[in-house]
Predict the 3D structure of the following.
Amino acid sequence: MSRIQLVHLAHARSGDKGDTANVGVIAYEPEHYPLLREQLTPERVKAHFGPMVKGDVERFELPNLHALNFLLHGALGGGGTMSLMNDAQGKVFSTAILRMEIEVPDAVADAMKDRGRVPAGWTPGAAG
Amino acid sequence: MSTGKTVRVASGQGFWGDDLEAPVRQVERGPIDYLMLDYLAEVTMSIMQKQRSRDPEGGFARDFVPLMERIFPACVEKGIRVVTNAGGVNPEGCAEALVEAGRAAGVAGRAKVGLVTGDDLMDRLDALLADGHELRNMETGAPLSEIRDQVQSANAYIGAAPIVRALEKGADVIVTGRSTDTALTYAPLMHEFGWAADDWDRIATGVVAGHINECGAQATGGNCLIDWWSIPGMAEVGFPIVEAGPDGSFVVTKHDGTGGRVTRASVAEQILYEMGDPSEYITPDVIADFTTIRLEEEGTDRVRVHTVKGRPATEFLKVSIAYASGWKATGTLTYAWPDAAAKARAADRILRERLDRLGLAFDEIRTELVGWDSTHGALVGPPPADLPEVQLRIGVRSSDHAAVERFTREIAPLVLTGPPSVTGFAGGRPRVQQIMAYWPALLRKEAVEPHLVVEVKDV
């Protein structure tokens, strides 16, 4: 087994509802969804964010999209216009969760190690 | 109504301030039947309320009017109908400006404007409270009476019915106040396909279509994390178009020749945006179960969304209330190598000591280092000594306006009276902003629905 960062296994999008940030995590490969489901427990996600999340972490499963949705309560400094945070609307909690580490079989780690990051030699405009 | 009929609902704006060229592309670059323009977010209504208190003719998304002047003739020629919540807290004023824009654009006598009002609860708030509607905060359980005096705006999120009525009455452009974002997409589908109000699965599928449309390019490559570096043509990104059939199932696509990308993954990202419990996505018209969504790629930039499961709607409407809750300001300064972060931290300490000596009271003082921890916080650990530069960002919040105002005068002095190699203060003093806090509540439908009014008038 190897430990790799979630950024290589999943993509994510986050947003806000009041003082709660939501983070949706989607497996790049459907067959990795069970690994995420097993290891991205609400407890581990809560521990990952530490003092950044004052309240509970809730988790919902969307096997149809091979995705998990997390609600991070009390994560946005009061939320809306109350918040003093640069990220008052929780837009980048998406990549913050992708810093987590996941245990995967060595073959998976090897196959996925380049996913999720800009390819070497890329320049703006390369996509047309 | 033929069984093979397809209705195309295009998204043109995902928020107030979105790409002004996007709706023009939707109208000009290919076939569409409806253009939905979503201008409202949680905080938008309170901002509009503030604008209206300064100018009685304001209080709506002003961008909408020149946009319509630009696209009105093409919409009339092509039979494209427009549905928008641009009305904000002044839909009447918005509709009036729209009629004038139509005349200026030369479509007088050739188009009808629909106006939906009655979502605004401000004038009825005390009567509602007196009638026993407590409007308790959905998150804290506190009754609204605790902050009644501070309330700036109060609007019920209304569903599809009044929009459908306006379409039946022949309106070509429909302006509402706080319609739900999703209704702007599924109301036209209900109208076109004649779905019954209890056709839960079809309406729920329309809600999914609405959720995909409501944030504009976020479904077609914008803010898309997966392989973002390879998404082409983002300078002219195509906004999403929903091509729906009578059974409710639809294809998400965009016009040929526009930039961006529509894949299972790009659509899935948008589906998860601002998601709560996916098995119960509550709208005024239905509870949609997003765990029943099935996505299928059926060609380049074409993703099919099969019908999903819906359940009967609740007896309540959500109410969005904004209330004044003190003041805030944020100041920034930039520190350079060497020891950029150490200098920023030292400046932060000096500033806090000065605020303290001035006897100013704040509910919160928050310090972030932009370029280091302002996005991922404690996850990134302490900054390295050789960080080339960092921006110190300090925010304060207080119920005392004078304290926040004085704070704004304490940033610039740090340039000459604090740690060295500091710059980036050319923007001047920070601005004091009034905080509009958000109070979500529930209200029984019968307290709102009889008050909804639909008017249609000629341009």
Summary: Chain B has two domains: 7-119+157-314, 321-439. The mean pLDDT of chain B is 96. Chain B touches chain A through 55 residues (CB under 8 Å).
